[in-house]
Design goal:
mainly alpha; three-stranded antiparallel beta sheet; about 160 residues; globular; 6 helices
């Protein structure tokens, strides 16, 4: 369940990103330490730029762990399974539809990103960061590849206290 960001949340996100966060609509997920790790971003930024990435991972420990997972070859394996498993194709298309619906719920029409989600959905697997962010933001059982990648991640928040 997403929640409106507080000033403390925005300060934490700024520290995580190393820059001022742009147009954070909501906190989509919190790390077990309590800090935001996934935000919701509107499909059009305040400067007018179209931005299809609705769920955006901000925690550097999370994104670092996902980057390590991406380098393992998991995406190629996922793509191969997507090409031969019709049930998985249906689940991944449903994840794409969920992403579009969540973004559309903001009521902001952006023709430039119509039908575009993130992570390669619905036909490719190209960014585990986006897929994991979707799984964390939408909850388990929505994005099969995001859930799979999330399950393969180490406990990124346990190495040392989040800042």
């Amino acid at each position: 369940m997403s929640e409106k960001p507080t000033e403390q949340d925005l300060a934490a996100i700024q520290q995580q990103l190393g820059r001022t966060p742009r147009d954070v609509h909501a906190i989509a997920h919190r790390c077990p330490c309590g800090k935001p790790d996934v935000v919701e971003t509107p499909p059009r930024l305040s400067d007018g730029t179209p931005f299809p990435t609705f769920y955006y991972a901000t925690c550097p420990r999370l994104t670092g762990a996902i980057s390590t997972l991406e380098s393992s070859g998991l995406m190629a394996d996922m793509q191969g399974r997507l090409e031969v498993d019709p049930d998985l194709v249906g689940e991944y298309h449903a994840a794409h539809d969920d992403y579009l619906a969540a973004r559309a719920a903001l009521g902001v029409d952006v023709p430039e990103v119509e039908g575009i989600t993130a992570g390669g959905m619905p036909d490719r697997v190209k960014c585990l960061h986006s897929l994991v962010a979707h799984s964390l933001g939408a909850g388990p059982g929505v994005n099969p590849f995001g859930d799979e990648a999330l399950a393969a991640l180490p406990d990124w928040w346990k190495a040392s206290p989040c800042e």
